Amino acid sequence: MGILGAGVIWQLAVVGGLLDRTVIPTATETLSTVIVALQSSSTWLAIYETLQGWAIALVLASILAIPAGIVIGANRLLYDVTRPVVEFLRPVPSVALIPLAVLVFGSGLESKVFLATFAATWMLLIQTIYGVHDVNPVAYDTSRAFGLGPVERLYRISLPSALPFIATGLRVASTVALLLGVSTEIVIGAPGIGRAIMLASSAGAYRETYALVVITGFLGIGLNLLHRAGERYFLHWHPAYRGAVR
C-alpha cells in the first residue's frame, strides 16, 4: 500500500505541475517503461551483473565478519583491544575509498565487490559481536555447572543466542552491499544496473532512467523479502518468529 500511495502522489505531483514533466515522467509512464525494459535482455544482463557483485560481496563479508565477530564477542580482552580499531574503521564511508579501489582493482567487478564488502562487513561484525554479548549469564553459569567446556558453550549457547542478531546483520548488510554496488556502478561505470542508469541519464533518456531506478528499488525490496522469509524459516524456534512457519 505504501508503494501504491507513493506512486499516486508521484503521478499527481507531475500531472499537477508541481514537478517538471520535461525531466520527471509520470508514474504511469515510468511503469510502462519498466515493463518495456524488462522485456530487454540488456536489462536482465545489468540486473545479473549487479546481483553477481552483491552476492560475492555478501559472501565475503559473511566469511570475514561472522567468525571474527564470534571470536571477538566471546573474548573480553580481545573485544577491548579491537574495539578502537572497529570504531575507527566502521564510520569510514565506502565511497571515500573509490579512488583507492579504482587505482588498485580498476573499474570492473573487483572494485565493486571490494567497496560493497567493506561496507557490509562492519554491519555484520557489530551485530555478531552484540549477539555473542547478549547471552544470558544464567545460561553460561548453568553450562559451567554441567561441566560444558568453552567449545561446547560456544556452539550450544553463544551461537544460538547470536543467530537472530546475525540474521538481522545479514539483512542490513545485504541492503548496504546492494546500495554500494549500484553506487559504484554509477560512479566508476562498473558493469550493472547502476551503469545503465548513468548511461540513460547522460543520454537524456529520463523515462529509462527513472524506470531503471524503480527496477533497482524493487530489486532491493525483493532481496529484503527473501531475507525475511529465510529468517522466519530458519529461526522459527525464536520467540520473534515462533508461529510464523506452519
Write a short abstract of this structure.
The protein is mainly α and 246 residues long. The chain contains ten helices and no strands.
Question: Would you give an account of this structure?
Answer:
With 246 residues, this protein is mostly helical. The protein has a single domain (31-234), classed as MetI-like (MetI-like fold, Orthogonal Bundle). It is 78% helix and 0% strand. It is built from ten helices and no strands. The protein is elongated, with a radius of gyration of 22 Å. It starts with a helix and ends in a 12-residue tail after the last helix.
How many β-strand stretches?
A: 0
Count of helices?
Answer: 10
Residue share in helix: over 70%
| Largest sheet data | none
Total individual domains: 1
CATH architecture: Orthogonal Bundle
CATH homologous superfamily placement: MetI-like
CATH classification, class level: Mainly Alpha
**Portion in strands:** under 5%
Shape: elongated
Average pLDDT for all residues: 86
Structural class: mainly alpha
Model regions low in confidence, pLDDT < 50 over at least 5 residues: none
Query: What sequence of helices (H) and strands (E) makes up the elements?
Result: HHHHHHHHHH
Distance between the termini: 26 Å
Report the C-alpha radius of gyration, rounded.
22 Å
Reported by name, the CATH topology is MetI-like fold
